[in-house]
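Intended use. Records like the one below are meant for learning the mapping from a protein sequence to its folded structure. Do not use them to infer anything beyond what is encoded.
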Amino acid sequence: MVVDPRNNFFETHFKGVLDGRGGRWGGYASEMDWVNEAFRDSIVMLPGFHALLVGEWCNTDGIYRYWQKYFDKSSSWVMEHASLVHF
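Structure written out for the chain above:
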């Protein structure tokens, strides 16, 4: 996600969740739940392989080896061909 650092972007997208709702992530289960709700009508989505989750390489994560299996390639191949890794 590319974030516009101008103040109006903060006022429009972040202020309400950070100041107006209680608890971690403004009452959402995770930050991604908030991102999905806040930007669902305005965000351009990348295909998953262009923004891999770090869990691709973490054996305790549910996404572990997803793209390795999908392409039938090694973990190093996936790393070499990935555009971005999302932490």
